[in-house]
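My current task is to audit a protein record that another person submitted. I need someone to confirm that the token line plausibly describes how this chain folds. Take the sequence as given and treat only the tokens as open to question. This is what I was given:
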Amino acid sequence: MHIQFMIEDRSSAVLIDLLMEKLQGTFPAFTWNIKSFRGIGGFTKKNTIKETKTGKLLNDLATYLSAFDKQLQGIAAAVFIVVDNDTRETADFRRELEQVAQNKRISIDHVFCIAVEEAEAWLLGDRDAVEQAYPSAKSSVLNTYIQDGICGTWELLADAVYQGGSRKLKKDCPTYMEIGERKAVWAKNIGTYMQLNKNKSPSFQYFIGELTKRLRSA
């Protein structure tokens, strides 16, 4: 069985890689590949080259889905598209994603996994892992988190684990790329300790459930 991932940024890709290594302990006979993008972008309107050659996941979604649909024909494979959902209504967003696949007549098995609100919600879904990775994490901040809530998730995680909190981090890392690098560090450190069956994030459990369902049937 081969799993092809499409991930919107590097920090999420770091986490997915760690999770797949954990799953291989149970399902050794599968392979995976991760295509990461430079952010989520937006759905195309006119489908011009300028819109679709951006390096952003939503802009390039139709192009890459079509490519993987051809590349993976004839083998046991599935494409998992993992995206954040900051402000959209999740059900509406999922319908929009599925519409892209329908419009391109994608026949290969594919799953849209929406991290609500951000991939950091999956990290916060395993509080034990957060505290193992960051023993000095602020319990008072972690206690305020409502799982998969729309609350500025990465900023809350920063407030819990980064000295000086999110305000200091934004001064220390003023660019999107620098913040992304810090998120990748959190993903690696916390992801190392995550237990797949104990995560409290519903969107994470959907992701893992869809993965394990396919790996068991392979």
Q: What stands out?
A: The mean pLDDT is 94. The longest strand covers residues 77-84. DSSP finds eleven helices and four strands in the chain. Residues 120-191 form one domain.
